[in-house]
């Protein structure tokens, strides 16, 4: 198997000022494979931006090693780091475009810095603007563009020198939901058509869900979960993971919601979680048909993650106690079931 494109081993980062020491990252071991879309999530202050800044060597770790594309960047001189950085493009929440330069000028800038001849610059900018769908805006200034268009320029500029990696730090956080989806579609094309490995830092779980292959959860500088989006979202192993994921997946009702449901519905409240290939509708109808029961879905829903169905619904099951018990037992054979107290 090819070695990981990005590898962090035992990475720690502390910031020390005169009066305080902040541990931003602690003992991070992480591997990001070539060709994947990898998301890093966590609450504000968890260390996400610091982690990204270590990958492009804008910060240096206090301990541990960072390897990018086979180069141990923690051992490189500033001059050699420039070569590593040229393999990495970056986009930001606030776009960071030059307001005094046209779209063309912004995208041409890294090519100019790299010493590309004028003719080559022109051809490459045309190619990039066509890729991001902004050919007609080449001579516009950033202030004349929408947020989504500005981020497209940011993406074109980040791709100018053919990077292997694109780091996206909260790149859609300033955009409305529809524009966010447009930018995410573009990032997916960057990954699938150009083969660029994309690392997305975000606090928006919807972004992770709609774009990432794998996700890492950071909590107070520690890496607490890493896995496929399906695994982490459908079965988070930590409280932090659970809290983050619950912001997008309507999961089991909390205690207040259970009390409210109890007042509104008769019968037993039963939460049924289906993952993977089981089909929720089928599971429910089969279980209920075999018994003399009525059921109503009172909370939750089914969703698709990475092409697999996932969901948790709470049912109010009414009927004879024995029938409810048998139905719950048969549901247990195919799903995770919890009878809510
Ligand atoms: N240059 C710095 N000097 C001192 N402390 C810093 C510095 N950069 C980051 N920190 C601290 O390190 C911790 C992690 O910060 P970081 O910006 O990486 O978190 P984050 O997860 O990206 O947060 P946010 O989502 O709010 O951007 C925080 O406690 C922050 O205050």
From TrEMBL:
One GO BP annotation is: amino acid transport
Keyword Nucleotide-binding among UniProt keywords: yes
| Xref: SUPFAM superfamilies | ACT-like, P-loop containing nucleoside triphosphate hydrolases
Against InterPro entries, the record matches this protein to: AAA+_ATPase, ABC_transporter-like_ATP-bd, ABC_transporter-like_CS, ACT-like_dom_sf, MetN_ABC, MetN_ABC_transporter-like, NIL_domain, P-loop_NTPase
Per UniProt, the keywords (alphabetical) are: Amino-acid transport, ATP-binding, Cell membrane, Membrane, Nucleotide-binding, Translocase, Transport
Regarding protein family, the annotation reads: Belongs to the ABC transporter superfamily.
Name recorded for this polypeptide: Methionine ABC transporter ATP-binding protein
Q: Which organism is it from?
A: Streptomyces vietnamensis
């Amino acid at each position: 198997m090819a070695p990981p494109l990005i590898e962090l081993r035992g990475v720690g980062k502390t910031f020390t000022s005169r009066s305080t020491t902040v541990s931003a990252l602690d003992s991070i071991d992480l591997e990001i494979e070539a060709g994947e879309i990898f998301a890093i999530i966590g609450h504000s202050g968890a260390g996400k931006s610091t982690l990204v800044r270590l990958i492009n060597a804008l910060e240096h770790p206090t301990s541990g090693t960072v390897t990018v594309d086979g180069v141990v960047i923690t051992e490189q001189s500033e001059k050699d780091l420039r070569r590593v950085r040229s393999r990495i493009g970056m986009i930001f929440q606030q776009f960071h475009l030059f307001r005094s330069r046209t779209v063309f000028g912004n995208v041409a800038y890294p090519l100019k810095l790299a010493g590309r001849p004028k003719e080559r610059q022109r051809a490459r900018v045309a190619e990039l603007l066509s890729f991001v769908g902004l050919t007609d805006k080449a001579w516009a200034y950033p202030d004349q563009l929408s947020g989504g268009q500005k981020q497209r320029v940011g993406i074109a500029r980040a791709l100018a020198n053919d990077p292997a990696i694109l780091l996206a730090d909260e790149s859609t956080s300033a955009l409305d939901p529809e524009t966010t989806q447009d930018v995410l579609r573009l990032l997916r094309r960057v990954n699938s058509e150009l083969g660029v490995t994309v690392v997305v830092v975000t606090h928006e779980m919807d972004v992770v869900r709609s774009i990432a292959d794998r996700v890492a959860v950071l909590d107070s500088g520690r890496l607490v979960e890493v896995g496929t989006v399906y695994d982490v979202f459908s079965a988070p192993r930590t409280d932090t993971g659970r809290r983050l994921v619950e912001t997008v997946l309507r999961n089991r009702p909390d205690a207040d919601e259970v009390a409210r449901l109890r007042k509104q519905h008769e019968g037993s409240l039963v939460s049924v979680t289906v993952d993977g290939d089981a089909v929720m509708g089928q599971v429910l109808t089969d279980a209920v048909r075999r018994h003399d029961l009525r059921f109503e879905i009172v909370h939750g829903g089914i969703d698709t993650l990475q092409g697999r169905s996932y969901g948790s619904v709470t049912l109010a099951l009414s009927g004879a106690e024995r029938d409810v018990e048998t139905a719950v037992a048969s549901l247990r054979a195919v799903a995770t079931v919890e009878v809510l107290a």
